[in-house]
Recover the amino acids of this structure.
């Protein structure tokens, strides 16, 4: 598997910075990043990323990257450097929006890339500082709103941690950490940090996760939050219409870009290097195309306007049923007819059925999407070369689900050919090639479901999480969570079945 990075590679692992922490004494500088999940009203991902926050460490001249820390489960609030050893203390945490102040204190050895979580309880750590003796000064939020009910957001704890070994090494069980018992009350005052753009190189451009990619001729088009449309390949250009790019389509008349602005969708056609408005919608929509060019537009508001079908003539449909981005979102392109998911009854999000529309807009139920015992969420689907349907999903559970599943269903009746359980949620699907939220890329055999290959996607030694894929011959276009656009050549056994030589 040969990876070509089409987007600028310098400092690309930063993505979208949130803060910069310089240490002048040793000529070091750390950059905290936040990677937003690709959430919009037409697509949702629960616990989408294992790695939503990153700390990247460099020499202060930016010529050498010393390491990348990807284990934070909460926003990074502060970073401190040990005075004598290659160690960082990383303060993380946030308010959960309803009751708890959650977080962790991490110690990271960037030379060995070893890291450990220190505390035996979840606490939002607001600030951290090493003393010259190697002790840690901490400032913490309350455990929850009831610990200091009169002013939970203004009150915290401050103290010195003389032993910052991991709690398991100290024989502590999860609960309350006795090392915090001597901490005293303090008023919360966050340090004033210099804006990151004053400390990063002047030519640095932040990038957001890539929402979608598409092949158009010999080029790869991509859309991400800092640029609604960009072209990579022999020709390179960018277009900056107003709005957020959320979907891309390749067509014989030119690529199509779906933009959202103020919760209203617009569809643009790219001809040459110019975007031309094709249709403006009264509200937000999720779009999909069949192989004949008919476009189904499903209104993404739960109590929104009508669904639409565009063929030789545009058609306003009766509302096809309740829509929400966790259950009903399904972009299924290239079929004989437009497809969508509908609950049973149509006002429900449960017992979903795959439905198809004829050219007159009449619905035909194809087969049950959910089984009697499973409620499928975050659905993705595409057609394979033999006409079978490949789908990926997570099974609803009261517990947080990290694993994903891929099925191969034989059309038109939906008979299960095979099912494969995967180690993480599926972020993107293109035929039998898939991307996972743990940063893996893989491929399954179309006939048997056997795993042909799976490996972590690493670019210049740094983990990248694939968000969108499109395959053409043996070339894979890939957009990642840190804003990279990649062209990946699949060779030998890496080729999906049926891929032309």
């Amino acid at each position: 598997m040969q990876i070509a990075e089409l987007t600028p590679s310098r400092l690309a692992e930063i993505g979208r910075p949130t803060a910069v922490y310089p240490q002048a004494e040793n000529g070091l500088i750390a950059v905290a990043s936040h990677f937003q999940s690709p959430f919009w009203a037409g697509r949702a991902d629960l616990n989408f990323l294992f790695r939503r926050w990153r700390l990247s460490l460099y020499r202060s001249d930016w010529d050498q990257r010393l390491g990348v820390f990807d284990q934070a489960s909460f926003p990074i609030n502060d970073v401190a450097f040990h005075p004598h050893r290659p160690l960082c203390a990383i303060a993380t945490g946030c308010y959960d929006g309803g009751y708890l102040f959650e977080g962790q204190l991490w110690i990271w050895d960037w030379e060995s890339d070893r890291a450990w979580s220190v505390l035996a309880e979840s606490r939002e750590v607001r600030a951290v500082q090493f003393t010259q003796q190697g002790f840690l000064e901490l400032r913490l939020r309350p455990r929850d709103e009831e610990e200091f009910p009169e002013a939970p957001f203004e009150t915290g704890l401050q103290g010195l941690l003389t032993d910052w070994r991991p709690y398991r090494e100290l024989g502590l069980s999860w609960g309350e950490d006795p090392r915090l018992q001597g901490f005293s009350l303090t008023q919360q005052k966050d340090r004033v940090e210099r804006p990151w753009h004053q400390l990063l190189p002047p030519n640095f451009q932040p990038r957001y996760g890539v929402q979608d990619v598409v092949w158009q001729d010999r080029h790869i088009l991509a859309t991400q939050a800092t640029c609604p449309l960009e072209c990579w390949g022999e020709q390179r250009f960018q277009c900056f219409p107003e709005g957020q790019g959320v979907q891309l389509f390749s067509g014989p008349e030119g690529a199509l870009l779906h933009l959202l602005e103020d919760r209203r969708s617009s569809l643009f056609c790219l001809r040459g290097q110019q975007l031309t408005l094709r249709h403006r919608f009264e509200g937000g929509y999720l779009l999909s195309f069949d192989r004949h060019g008919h476009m189904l537009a499903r209104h993404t508001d739960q109590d929104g306007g009508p669904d639409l079908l565009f063929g030789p003539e545009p058609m306003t449909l009766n509302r096809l049923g309740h829509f929400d981005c966790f259950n009903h979102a399904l972009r299924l392109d290239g079929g004989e007819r437009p497809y969508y998911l509908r609950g049973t009854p149509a006002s429900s999000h449960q017992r979903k059925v795959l439905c198809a529309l004829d050219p007159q807009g009449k619905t035909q139920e194809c087969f049950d999407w959910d089984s009697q015992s499973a409620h499928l969420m975050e659905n993705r689907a595409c057609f394979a070369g033999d006409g079978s349907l490949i789908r990926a999903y997570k099974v609803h559970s009261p517990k947080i689900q990290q694993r994903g599943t891929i099925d191969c269903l034989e059309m038109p009746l939906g008979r299960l050919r095979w099912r494969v359980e995967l180690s993480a949620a599926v972020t993107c699907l293109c035929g039998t090639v898939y991307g996972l939220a743990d940063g893996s890329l893989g491929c399954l055999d179309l006939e048997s479901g056997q795993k042909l290959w799976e490996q972590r996607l690493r670019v210049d030694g740094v983990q990248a999480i694939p968000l969108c894929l499109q395959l053409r011959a043996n070339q894979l276009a890939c957009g990642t969570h840190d804003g990279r656009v990649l062209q990946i050549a699949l060779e030998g056994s890496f080729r999906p079945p049926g891929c032309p030589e």
